[in-house]
Write a structure and sequence with these properties.
By secondary structure, the protein is mainly alpha-helical. The chain has helices spanning 4-8, 11-24, 42-47, 71-78, 81-91, 109-136, 140-145, 155-182, 188-191, and strands at 29-33, 38-40, 56-60, 65-67, 151-152. This is Acetyl-CoA carboxylase (Trinotate prediction).
């Protein structure tokens, strides 16, 4: 979160050191988001496979979630209350943006209290729908579709999957090393 406590504990410094180490690391690195696990915020910066695309791969369980922001934070930034009111007015023919204006003097005191309660309930309902919609973007299927993760791996299959994946990646590295020792003028793209 980069707060004062994190500054004193040098979390950012050590996070940067991890990124530097991963960039230079020349062995396979697998990141697995476990069941019901979440990968959020600054963790993306440290664990992003684009740091070392040749060796880093990220996988996810089918029940995990990941995104930079929490759904509620994303909604509060991208879909402010004024936008919610516009949506309510667009979808509800009985509502008008002037109805949501607190300075509207045509209301009686009783109807103003009643309307204010209804207005708050409507805004709350629309906001919860927006948060649910934002949460749908954090699913493993969406991450796979956006190519953020390499594959969805179920927890029960994960040990077998990662054993064979690691074995394959180590053999690939050995073959690359052997080819480069014979012909050092080749680059990684020409070997693949």
């Amino acid at each position: 979160s980069a707060g004062m406590k994190d500054m004193y504990n040098q979390v950012l410094k050590f996070g940067a050191m991890i990124v530097d180490s991963l960039r230079a690391y020349d062995y396979p690195v697998f990141v697995y988001i476990m069941p019901n696990g979440e990968l959020r915020g600054g963790s993306w910066a440290v664990l992003d496979p684009s740091i070392n695309p040749k060796y880093m791969e990220i996988y996810s369980c089918d029940t995990s979630s990941a995104n930079i922001l929490e759904p509620s934070a994303l909604v509060s930034i991208k879909y402010r209350e004024s936008d919610i009111i516009k949506t309510i007015c667009r979808l509800n023919k009985n509502s008008d943006e002037h109805d949501f204006n607190a300075s509207n003097k045509h209301k009686t005191e009783f109807s103003e209290q009643e309307f204010s309660r209804n207005e708050k309930d409507l805004i709350k309902s629309y906001k919860s729908v927006a948060e649910y919609f934002a949460k749908l973007h954090d699913t493993p299927c969406r991450m796979l579709d956006k190519k953020v993760i390499k594959k969805i791996v179920c927890w029960k299959d994960s040990r077998r999957f990662f054993y064979w994946r690691l074995k394959r990646r180590i053999h690939e590295k050995k073959i690359w090393t052997d080819i480069l020792s014979v012909n050092p003028s080749l680059n990684d793209e020409s070997i693949s």
